[in-house]
Amino acid sequence: MEPEINMAELGEKIVEILKTIYDPEIPVDIYELGLIYDVFINEDREVKILMTLTSPNCPVAESLPLEVEDKVKSFSMIKDAEVEITFDPPWTQELMSDVAKLELGML
């Protein structure tokens, strides 16, 4: 029998993983940049991440979602992970956290 999993803690661990992934053009992690719109976790520990890119023509449009998927999947408590890209709503600088804005000298 598998141990009971605290979904809130699991969500926090996933956020920690997302904070290790950086946009190659902006020296801020994708979570603080506001590229992650939502993280869904079901009882089977399958994760779906809804994210965007800074623009539809982003040079890492192919590789960044795969990096996110691979890093989340590599966490032992996750059975599977899938990333869905959306541009609705489109990313704007207003989606960045204060941490990201401070890092970029915008505060």
Give a quick precis of the structure.
With 107 residues, the protein is of the alpha+beta class.
Q: DSSP helix count?
A: 3
Q: Within the CATH hierarchy, at the fold level, what is the topology?
A: GMP Synthetase, Chain A, domain 3
The outline comes out as globular
In what range is the share of β-strand residues?
15-25%
- As a whole number of angstroms, the C-alpha radius of gyration is 14 Å
What is the SS-derived class? alpha+beta
For the record, the CATH architecture stands as 2-Layer Sandwich
**Unreliable residue stretches:** none
Kindly list the characteristics that best describe this protein.
MIP18-like; GMP Synthetase, Chain A, domain 3; 27% helix; alpha+beta; Fe-S_Maturation_MIP18; DUF59 domain-containing protein; three-stranded mixed sheet; 107 residues; 3 strands
Structural commentary:
This protein has 107 residues and is an alpha+beta fold. It has a single domain, classed as 2-Layer Sandwich (GMP Synthetase, Chain A, domain 3). The chain is 27% helix and 17% strand. The chain is built from 3 helices and 3 strands; from the N terminus they run αββαβα. It has helices at 7-18, 63-73, 98-103; strands spanning 36-41, 46-51, 80-85. The protein has a 3-stranded mixed beta sheet, covered by helices on one side. Helix 2 links the parallel strand 2 (46-51) and strand 3. The longest helix is centred in the first third of the chain and has 12 residues, at 7-18. It is globular, with a radius of gyration of 14 Å. The termini are far apart. The mean pLDDT is 92.
